[in-house]
Amino acid sequence: MTTATATAPRRRGVAARLALGVLHRWLPLAVLVACWEAATRIAGSVFFPPPSDIVRWMHEIWFSGPVGRLFLTEQAGDAIGPSLGRMALGLAIATVAGVAVGLALGRSERAFAYLDPLVQFARVIPPPTLVPVFIVLFNLGTQMQVASIVFSAVWPILLNTADGARSVDRLQMDTAETFRLSGPDRIRYIVIPSALPKIFAGLRLALSLALILMIFSELLPGTSDGLGFELTNAQSQSDLPTVWAVIVLLGILGYLFNTILLAVERRVLGWHRGARKADA
Amino acid sequence: MLEITGLGHSYGDHHVLRDVNLTVAEKELVTIVGPSGCGKSTLLRCIAGLIAPTAGSVVLNGTAIDGVPDGLAVVFQDYSRSLMPWLTVRDNVALPLRRRGLGKGERRAEALRALRSVGLEDAAAKYPWQLSGGMQQRVSIARALAYRPSLLLMDEPFGSVDAQTREDLEDLVLRFHRDEGMTILLVTHDIDESVYLGDRVVVLARDPGRIRKELTVTLPPDRDQIATRADPAFVRLRAEVGRLVRGGAADGGAADGGPADHLASE
Ligand SMILES: Nc1ncnc2c1ncn2[C@@H]1O[C@H](COP(=O)(O)OP(=O)(O)O)[C@@H](O)[C@H]1O
Ligand SMILES: [Mg+2]
Prior knowledge:
The structure holds two protein chains of two kinds. Chain A has helices spanning 2-43, 51-61, 74-107, 109-123, 127-137, 142-166, 170-178, 183-218, 227-236, 240-268, 270-279. Chain A is mainly α. Chain A folds into two domains: 1-36; 60-279, MetI-like fold (Orthogonal Bundle), CATH 1.10.3720.10. Chain A is globular and about 70 Å long. In chain A, 32% of the residues are buried. Chain B is of the alpha/beta class. Chain B has a single domain (2-37, 54-184, 228-249), classed as 3-Layer(aba) Sandwich (Rossmann fold). Chain B is built from eleven helices and ten strands. In chain B, the strands form two sheets. Chain B has a six-stranded mixed sheet with strand order 6-7-8-3-9-10, sandwiched between helices. Chain A binds chain B through residues 169, 171-172, 174-175, 177-182, 185, 189-190, 193-194, 196, 271-272, 274-275, 278-279, and chain B through 48, 50, 68, 70, 72-74, 76, 78, 81-82, 84-87, 95-96, 98-99, 127, 129-130, 147.
């Protein structure tokens, strides 16, 4: 009896705190959207449709498809699918290349001596300025677009990996050496895990860069699908609701990807947080 | 099995070790004791092949050491940094077995066996940072044991655990030494520990690090934390080692350990 009365308020306390936390998190956004809604309704400008209209329009053009296609319409298939596909491919290539070269830079003095000046030079070039070069180098369309994404996303991954690989604990390397682990085993079981927190930090940066370059490369001529194409297309037809729909969707996608990445990171780097907590 | 001849090492122009000569026989447990900074870790690193000595040679089982030799394991003092925080206890112990061409299942079974022998099979699925310091050091001992080295090097392995755990770990090492007939070279700065564990105690002097004296421990091989430490022979030995470590032994130092007057001439 006494325990029941004692735990019930506490449980309610937890629930209330949780609700309050969610509220604090989302309240500013909700207020902002409400103000936006009110302002656009009052202004009644065709250039600034109210958020509720944007959402309704997004639903109509992209998410009102058949159940079998996960409610995606054909238009969504043409716009979202290719964009995400290129972004995923670009990120995958950037990750593999960035981690591989980063490991070499971080662990090999010679690789560092040869490659570091090149890397320092290449990474400060703003990727959009290279897009014309990529247009010449690669075919217009997917190849050029993926190349643009790779070139922007690879640097944070590469530099962070190199940094992480360089700062592997000396005693851990000595341990690997005394037990005569092979080179690949050392990379796999010592260097990559200890560089992983840094690699994830690089991935988070790479993700937002990839999203930017995904859209940017689709704004260029020679594009026939993707969200960027949808954007330019809508713009040329003064189809403002679609323009806004693309903008909102990009925000949602960026948020979603970051959340997924954080969740993966939390799983993969559980040891890192635990070890840090144990240290403190 | 291990012969160290005329070994010297300097970091730049800082002479850390000079003319160290030491022979360790099969199945011996030799302790090396000396003040901190006298070059004990440097000596161990030379033997392990982690650093190349600037003078002299180390020969293990008839082969001069050049790089880390096969069949050698090291237990470092800093257990928290020598265990991999991203691997479970079991995987930490199993990791060195990759060189042995065993399958994954066999490696894990071996790791569990080694963990059982140090009383840690229940912690197999945990991560090292979830364990106490003493338990972590037992994991790194288990890792070395699972590797089945012919020579086990230990660098102040119990330097940072509490007294009770330390005694337990000392007895653990003695048990393995006796049961598995492993050759062990153990470095410590603890005078009692050097006598309690060793068949032979090597006392180092510092600046530059060199052997001051070697003492054979004339205690029965079965040691007991309470009875052995009360044994008059133990008390006498520890007093002698203590005098040697503090550099106060004018009688023994110069004659046995080589030139104590190096101190003056350096
Ligand atoms: N990597 C290094 N570079 C330069 N000096 C070192 C290095 N390692 C150790 N020393 C120096 O060598 C001496 C002996 O060190 P060490 O072998 O660690 O002694 P111990 O283990 O007996 O405490 C110390 O004076 C230390 O400062
Ligand atoms: Mg030391």
